[in-house]
Structures are given as C-alpha cells and as structure tokens.
Amino acid sequence: MKTGDRVLISPDLTNRPAWSKATIIKVEESLFAGTVISAKTDDGTIYFGYKDLFKPHTEEACTH
Q: Which CATH number fits the domain that encloses residue 44?
C-alpha cells in the first residue's frame, strides 16, 4: 500500500458498524510497530494504525 491508494478501514479502528472507505495519506515504517498507515475517510476523519487494520478497496463494476 502507498500514499494515494484507496483502502477500507476496519471497524476495530473506527468503532463504526462497517468498514470505512478512505485514502492513504502516509505510510511509515516503525522499528517497534512495523508498518503504520494513516488514512483520511471520505468524511474527513483521519485514522492511523497497524497495516492489518486496512485492506485495499476495489470498486467492483456491476455487469448486470
């Protein structure tokens, strides 16, 4: 994952009922925590956490 990528943020981090859409604004490599990602949601809230709390967001086109 890199800056500018679209991701989904885990409800474990946001305390929201579902995964939240966001854009990565920073990726850091920490000696103590490993990869730490900061992402801004579509409503402007910024979250940061371990890489495993984020997953790539892919828009699936409806073909029906």
A: 2.30.30
Number of domains in the chain: 1
**What letter would DSSP give residue 61?**
P
Q: Examine residue 16 and state whether it is found in any structural domain, yes or no.
A: yes
Return phi, psi of residue 13, to 5°.
-95, -40
Whether residue 62 has pLDDT greater than 60: no
pTM of the model: 0.84
DSSP states of 18-49 as a string?
Answer: S-EEEEEEEEEEETTTEEEEEEEETTS-EEEE
